[in-house]
Amino acid sequence: MSTTRKILITLLVLFVIIQFFRPEKNQSVAESPNDIFAHYRTPENTKQLIHTACYDCHSNHTNYPWYAEVQPIAWWLSDHVNEGKSEINFSEFASYTPKKADHKMEEFVEMIKEGEMPLKSYTYIHGDAKLSDAQRTELAKWAEEIRSQIQADIK
Fold first, then answer.
1. Which site from 52, 91, 117, 141 is most exposed, i.e. has the minimal number of CB atoms within 10 Å?
2. Using CA atoms, how far apart are residues 73 and 100, in angstroms rounded to an integer?
3. How many structural domains are present in the chain?
4. Would you give the distance in Å from CA 154 to the centre of its chain?
């Protein structure tokens, strides 16, 4: 048997073996009582926009594509979602202290205005998550309104 063939068989066996090691999925069954929409009034179109462009990575419920069943892609997606939730988790937003919540929304506005979110790697696959300038303005305005409410609570 040739060396190339041995390497290919070994890689195939490793690929099959890693399929049995799956990360936990980010899919809660119920909406969290700490969800941002349970505490802050949000127009329905803005809420839908946030669900479409943000919730997969920044909430406790990710809608996984078919390829999330294949390792090592699932590991990469899991890491990406965990990192996103560490930056801001809309499902747990009300559990933040007012100062932390204000800072999270300040960062949210900055990332949206500068076009850093949603990530290009996400919008490449999820075309409906691409934000127009008007949508970015809408999200920034919404976040600034929430910041105003939070700042009123801080004082």
1. 141
2. 32
3. 1
4. 27
